[in-house]
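Box 4.2: Ligand-aware structure prediction
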Amino acid sequence: MTLNNLQFQSKYLSLDSEFYNITQMEPLEEPYLISFNPYAAKLIDLDANTVDNPKFIELLNGTYIPKGVKPFSMCYAGHQFSHYASRLGDGRAHNLGSINGWHLQTKGSGETLYSRTADGRAALPSSIREYLMSEAMHHIGIPTTRALGIIGSKTKLLRNNIETAAIVMRMSPSWVRFGTFEYFSYFKEYDKLKSLTDYVITESYPHLEKEEDRYFKFFTEVLERTASLIAAWQGIGFCHGVMNTDNMSITGLTIDYGPYAMLDDFDYGFVCNATDKAGRYAYGEQPNISYWNLTKLSKALTPIIDKERMQKKLDDYGAFIYPNAYINVMRKKLGLVLTLEEDKQLITNLVGALQDAYVDYTLFFRTLSRYDGERMPLFELAMNPIPFDSWLNLYDARLKKETLSQQKRQDMMLKTNPKYILKNYMLEKAIFLARQGNFTMVETLLHIATHPFDELPEFKHFAGDTPEEYKNLTLSCSS
Ligand code: AMP
Ligand code: MG
C-alpha cells in the first residue's frame, strides 16, 4: 500500500465528544526524515519504499492529511507521582485514526486543548529515544506501542538546553490509559465511564463482549496483562521512570517512553528519572507501583464493578498473580522448564547475589545462557563474584532435576536473554550525532534493536559491559 491509499478508521470519534478534541496539527519548520521503520510499516501494509517518498515527511508533519482524517487528541486524567491531576490528555499528540487495528498518532505535533502551559512539542533526544526503544522492546518480546517513523526540524525548543523539535509517528492497538477511566469517574460521569469500558472491551478484549460478568472479567484481565508486562520489565531490567496512571496502558502495553533506562549493573534501587528524588519509580519498586496504580484503576471502576470483588483480585495480584508472572519470566531466563516450588527461593537468592555482585545484568544472563558448569566466565563479569558461588551451587542442583539437555537449555536461553539491548549511553551517542545531522547511529541502533538475540559480530562492542563513566545514567522528565 502507498501513502495515497491508506484507509484510516476513527471509531474513537463515535464516543461522546468529551472524549476527544478535534484539532489541527502545527507543522514544524523545514522538516527532514530521520528514520523510517519498515517493521512497523508492515503492520499497516505500508510499502517499504515509502522511505523515499517525501510525502511521508508531510504525513508526520501534518502538511499531508489523508482523505477523511480528522486529527484529534484524547482526554485523560491521572495520578502523577501519587497526586491526582484531573485533566491531562494528549498535550502534544494527534491521532489520525487506525489501520489494521493500529492507531497512528503523532507526538510533538503542536498544542492541543490539553497542553496546559506546555508547548505541544517533543525534543529531538526524547523522540529518538522513544522511536528506538519501543522497537527494541517489541523485538525482545515485551508488549509495547511501536513507531513508524521520526522527523526532525529547524524549530527550536527551550528544554534544559535549546533543542530542535521532532515528531514521532507512534502506533498502538489502543491509547486508552488507566487515567482515561479516572477522568470520567472523578467527574462522576458514570454513563461515559461505562461507554469507555464498553469501547475498550469491544476493541481490546472482544472475547469478553458477550460475557455476563464482563466488567469484572475485564478488570481481572487488565490485572493479568499488567502483571505480565511488569514481570517482563523486571526480567529484562527495564525501568520506565514515570509510572503515573496516565502512563499505564489499559491493554498492558509499555507506553510513553520518557526518562527510561535499561539496567547496567543490576541494582534494585536504581532510579532512572533524575526528577524522581524520592525514588518512587525505582526499578525494584515497579511491581509495587503497578499494584498501587491498579488500586487507582479499581477506584475509578467502583461505579460499575463491585468494590469487594475488585479488592479480592487486587489481593490476589500481590499474593500470586504478579509473583507467579515474575517467577515464570525468571524461570525462562534461567532455562528451567519444570515448575518446582523451590524455584522461588532460587530466584530470590539470585536477585540477592546480583545485588551484591556489581554485575551487568544483561551480560550476566547472556553468559549464563552458555553455562556448562564452568563458573569462571560468570565470576569474571562481577566486581564481587563471591555471591555467585553459593548461588551456582543451587543452580547446579536445580539443573540436575531438569530433563532438557544442556544444548536445548542453552538454545532456549540464548533466545530469551538478549545479547543486545539499548543502553542509555548508546542512545546518548546516537543523539549526539543526530544533533549534528548524522543519523547513521540511529539506523545502527534500529538494526541492533530489531536483532537483539543475534550475534552481530560487527556490533559486538555494544554487547559488552557499559563503560564505567556511562553506567546508570539518569535523565530528567524534560522532553
Ligand atoms: P508524560 O509524563 O510525558 O507522560 O506527560 C504528562 C502529561 O503532560 C501528558 O498529558 C502530556 O501530553 C503532557 N505533556 C508533556 N510534555 C508536553 C509538552 N511539551 N506540551 C504539551 N503537553 C505536554
Ligand atoms: Mg504520558
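In the box above, the bound molecule is magnesium ion. The CA atoms of residues 129 and 427 lie 7 Å apart.
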